[in-house]
FAD-binding protein
Amino acid sequence: MSGLMMPVPDAAVLGRRGEIVAALTRIVGAEGVVESSVGLKPYESDGLTAYRQPPLVVVLPRTTAEVAAVLAYCHREGVKLVPRGAGTSLSGGALPLEDGVLMSMMRFNRILDVDFEDRVAVVQPGVTNLAITRAVEHRGFYYAPDPSSQIACSIGGNVAENSGGVHCLKYGLTANNVLGVELVLITGEVVRLGGRHLDPEGYDLLGLVIGSEGLLGVVTEVTVRILRAPETARALLVGFSSSEDAGRAVAAVIAAGIIPGGMEMMDRPAINAAEDFVAVGYPRDAEALLIVELDGPEVEVDHLIGEVEAIVRENGATTIRISVTPEERLAFWAGRKAAFPAAGRISPDYLCMDGTIPRKKLPEVLTGMQEMSARYGLRVANVFHAGDGNLHPLILYDANIPGELDRAESFGADILRLCVKVGGVLTGEHGVGIEKRDLMPVMFSEADLDHQMRVKCAFDADHLLNPGKVFPQLRRCAELGRMHVHAGRLPFADIPRF
Ligand SMILES: Cc1cc2nc3c(=O)[nH]c(=O)nc-3n(C[C@H](O)[C@H](O)[C@H](O)COP(=O)(O)OP(=O)(O)OC[C@H]3O[C@@H](n4cnc5c(N)ncnc54)[C@H](O)[C@@H]3O)c2cc1C
């Protein structure tokens, strides 16, 4: 893998592959184990396809008891394990390890209970995000967080990444919509955090687990809130001659006390790529495009549409279209929802970055990105969850041209450094994974990282769950003075000693 430092594979574990496969087969049955090189191929990367690594073996458990038995085995035998949902992570969170078991949760695909009275659904982690809404929409309900990948990504992956989407500005991220989980610890112990109600007792361990990127345990059940679908929704499609004007309009809408159901922005390269792809009438001459959706009771939505129209006009809108029918509203969104695949048509490869900034810093960050684009000689197309200040610059490159991936990665790192410099953060919703791992010290001090690692060590002292992710290299429980040498075997032998 190019330039990325991962934990050195443990030769002893590699040498015991046959024995490990046999043990896993005893737990889940032969149909739940994938070991052939052809069978392992689909698992060798996630959505961050720049990095690939076939796992030692893939295991597909079907029950919590099987998950617990596999984890207990890995714990006992010192074998690493990477949990995987649908493999759509854009930060490399589900990248396998050569000497690690990859646990796919895709056979956990059942909706266990829907309680319309309590407004909760209890689902297995391999259920796709969209399938939850599909299961409750006949009664006028839906599950609010809606990543663009919702047709494919799993709710277990959403929990691990604290995923967001267009509707999260108004309805919150995964963390605000998950009430409880069942979690299996690396020891095989099964714990329940939260339940069917808000505000669980004791420490907020559920909050700790949501967004923990598969480093603390394997989620085997999720209880989510379901919401009543809004009575109506309408959207405005607004073009601007500069992203500064669009950025000001976003800030003005929020400042007016209006919280749209979604407020997304695209820059000119993204507008054109999307329009080429779905042809829904996006204004190709606009430098920035804003889609603002208002939802709620019809009378309120009609009123707010008028207010937002006035605000965007005051801030220099050059074109305004307002949806009248649901079909028209969906057409406005079609280009935005297809922005990532559309970028795939204008470039052989792209890196999708994910940083968050204070909204008012948008013009400064966009200017900075243009300078970087010229300096690195790489194009960039931008889509934003504008209301949240969450940027998704798509850096376009060609992996077949030597050096372009390295340049794209350096460009991406500079964008994230800029996000932190203007008061933002390294990630909005895609997680840290391997992608932003080595940038963590840009945002966190040594003491911050040590404290975060102490939490990790409390759950997984041997660092067997998803190692190599989130924490910059050379930071393990061993470095926190907790090294225990057993039978002359030095733990974390791959860490250089000083
Ligand atoms: C085209 C496209 C668009 C996207 N749009 C968005 C978007 O709008 N918003 C957004 O937030 N993200 C988006 N993503 C990123 C991705 O879809 C999300 O991060 C998603 O939550 C990952 O889910 P998954 O099931 O694919 O998880 P995976 O990719 O399989 O895994 C992601 C992480 O979760 C861990 N994990 C998975 N399942 C479990 C489990 N049961 N227990 C413990 N840990 C687990 C893995 O170890 C890994 O660290 C997009 C991705 C693509 C490809």
